[in-house]
Amino acid sequence: MISPRLARLVEHLAPAKVQALIVSGLPNVRYLTGFTGSNALLLVTSEEAVLFTDGRYKTQAAQEAQGVKVLVARGAVVRALMGSVKRRRLRRLAFERNRATFDLYRTLREGLAGCWLKPLSSLLEKLRAVKDAPEIAALRRSVELNSRVFEAALPRLRPGRRETDVAAEIEHLMRRKGGQGPAFDTIVAAGQRSALPHARPTHNLLRKNDLVLLDHGVILDGYASDMTRTVALGNLDSDRRRLYGAVLEAQLAAIAVVRAGIPARQVDQQARSVLEKHGLKESFVHSTGHGVGLEIHERPRLGRGERTRLQAGMVVTIEPGAYVEGLGGVRIEDMVLVTANGCEVLTRTPKDLRVL
Questions:
Q1: Residues 129, 311: contact at Cβ < 8 Å?
Q2: Which of 92, 111, 173, 345 lies 20 to 30 Å (CA to CA) from residue 337?
Q3: What class does CATH assign to 4-128?
Q4: Residue 125: how many other CB atoms lie within 10 Å
Q5: What is the pLDDT of residues 159-195, one digit of tens each?
Q6: Which CATH class is domain 133-345?
């Protein structure tokens, strides 16, 4: 009997008029089976699912994979999959358009000459957008760990320290506290560099009275977290305090409208309208948020023109920011669980301006 996740997938295959789907995206393989190896393909039919991997993962696949048959290939994994397709006399196959490499597609096309190959775009990503109870629990744990890392890192923010040193210590804390590692490259940007939305840490020194933007996330049990806070190393002038206040107001306004049924663009517009009121329309240069799960960027995207309607069970970031060259930048980011009547802010770290 196939798992509930595989059953949901099979329901969506019927309208596509295919007999099976070849899953090649490793996050999607993990989502459907629990297998975490680096080499795998999954063949899903209406009756069963077969996981193909290589000899390095024989024991691991037996331990991790749930609800699927495991086949360890002696040669190339794709060759083993094609042999299985031929034995099952499958003729109408779908593949992941947004995940399959051109090399994989060419191999399938040449090796399965009698088959119709249909590209399906983002089918599994759409299913993964709504988290089930175990995923929400895993995301809660990841968010909580990330917040503990942030609190432990704050004493390390001192004038004279390099951005790279702080970033390295944050990532070290993630592992020491039980995480598997960073969900993305940690951002530490101080002073005028905080006006670079995705600044990479450099040997730039933290200085007294700087704004310092910290954006980091941890992987725990395979699930990512994401949080941004902006702190002050001493006194801030009135312009930078107003900048912080405007971004905080925008973030709270965006969170206030999150609920099942509203278009994603409405959340973005709410944040954008607040910043526009403060004369910061041109200083907000990215979308308001994105989904988070097994990957750090998942569906839905909370941006201009996004028509996707939020659903209960989605977990998204709310992260408006304002970046002013010569002055600095502020971003405040929480992870939020969409509910039927509103939302739950999963990130418990305070958002008031911290002066260190």
A1: yes
A2: 173
A3: alpha beta
A4: 21
A5: 999 999 999 999 999 999 999 999 999 999 999 999 9
A6: alpha beta
